[in-house]
Amino acid sequence: MELDDHAEDLASDLGVDKEEVKSDLQNLIEYSVPIDEAKGSLRRKYGDGSSGGGSAPSSKEIGEITPEDGNVTVTGVVLTAGERSIRYQGSDHVIVEGKLAGETGVIDYTAWEDFGLSPGDTITAGNAGVREWDGEPELNLGESTSLSFSEEPLDVPHEIGGDAQLADVQTGDRAVNVEVAVLECERRTIDGRDGETEILSGVFGDESGRLPFTNWEPAPAIEEGGPVRIENAYVQEFRGVPEVNVSEFSTVSELEREIDVGTDSTTMEIGDAVRTGGVYDVCVVGNLIAVRDGSGLIQRCPECYRVIQKGQCRTHGEVDGIDDLRVKAILDDGTGTVTAVLDDELTEQVYGGTLEDALEQAREAMDQEVVADTIRERIVGREYRVRGHLSVDEYGANLDAESFKERDDDPEARARAFLQEIDGVDDREGVDA
Ligand SMILES: [Zn+2]
After folding, report:
1. Ligand 1 centroid to residue 321 C-alpha, Å
2. Which regions of the chain are under pLDDT 50?
């Protein structure tokens, strides 16, 4: 939906002027407030009749709250509480986000007021707002919420605190603690919301995997290469994959122990991987069912490096294109499909030749499509194991491949082939057993 449609919706729901709602909405979006959150806060600002009502909100078990509940009263244990700064209507606002657990479930919350929440606190929140985020209910603790701390701790079957492994971290997670090695780190100057500012960006790794990060206020311990313990990081999507954000509210401390960064990536079914909305380092196995148009020998714009058609860049008009090789191949494992994107090096491997060879083949055939055809003949119908960064957008799921290997090419098969070679016999059964 376009911003205009969202504004229209809100305006008619709330019975207020559309232009006013739209400018508020635009403001929030500009500061990266997700659309649902932005709409939720405007509903609160203009007073949504559907969720207010006159009657007192009913008490609910956390596991029974649904996005349809307007306001509820809940009792639970604060598992995590992390501060974060957002800009709302032109001014910075510190909010606290985390998870609240009851005996029957866990729910994410956002506190718009400083209630002094700490992990381990048992609280009762009266008149907490419920909003929907990504199909799940979330709690809003605001001005109209009455909050009390209980002396008797509630016993919940969940661990208190936000310690996490990188492989389990997901977009939207708040108040996360990780212990990581700094695998890559560079200082960059960006044009932030308060003008030019210096940040660190790179890649963290732990025993479970790797994830990109941004450190908004450069921490020496990170820049020096770690390993570090980080408390109160939040996870936000950037370029389609989850990214660990280390903010001014995060604590960064040097870690005494070494981190043994795992080299294995998680292997997932394609359907599950796509449903996560984006994974930094993932492995999928599937049948290669098609090589898409725009594969093989292609030309890129020298200015923006995007692929061009017939010497025309959509942004820069007629340009002198740069020749390049790539493959966009559709992989299917029965649970879903993903487009694996192979860079020039991986494409040279599957093509079995260099860019010069491809140019030569195209010249001889007087048609550059022959390069894609050659690649099609070699890979379509085979099974591949692809590792890379998965991103999902409205056009589908792309897997930016770091490695692309035929399924048969596993160590066991290689060992078998090697044994056969030295034994000089084809004793398949003997090795298999
Ligand atoms: Zn261009």
Report:
1. 9
2. 49-54, 425-433
| Distance between first and last Cα of the chain | 57
The predicted-structure confidence for 392-404, as pLDDT tens digits, reads as follows 888 889 999 999 9
Q: How far is the CA of 402 from the centre of ligand 1 (A)?
A: 25
Determine the Cα–Cα distance for residues 241 and 29; give it in Å rounded to an integer. Answer: 19
Q: Could you tell me the distance, in angstroms and rounded to a whole number, from the CA of residue 116 to the centre of ligand 1?
A: 51
- As a whole number of angstroms, the distance between CA 379 and CA 293 comes to 15
Calculate how far, in angstroms, residue 308's C-alpha sits from the geometric centre of ligand 1. 8
Per DSSP (E only), the strands in 165-208 are 176-192, 195-206
Tokens found for residue 132: 């929907």
CA 4 to centroid of chain Cα atoms: 26
In sequence order, the 6+-apart residues with CB closer than 8 A to the CB of 138 are: 107, 108, 109, 110, 130, 131, 132
Is 93:85 a contact under the CB 8 Å cutoff? yes
Q: Is the pTM of the predicted complex or chain greater than 0.85?
A: no
Residue the block writes with tokens 């016993």: 155
194 CA from centroid of ligand 1 (Å): 29
> In the 8-state DSSP scheme, what is residue 394?
T
> Hunting for tokens 């559907």 — which residue is that?
50
* Entry field: residues in the chain: 433
Distance 355 CA to ligand 1 centre (A): 21
Give ion ligand 1 contacts, CB < 5 A: 301, 303-304, 313, 315-316
Give which of 170, 77, 97, 105 is closest to 139, Cα–Cα. Answer: 97
Inter-CA distances, 214 with 161, 164, 184, 250, Å: 22, 18, 11, 12
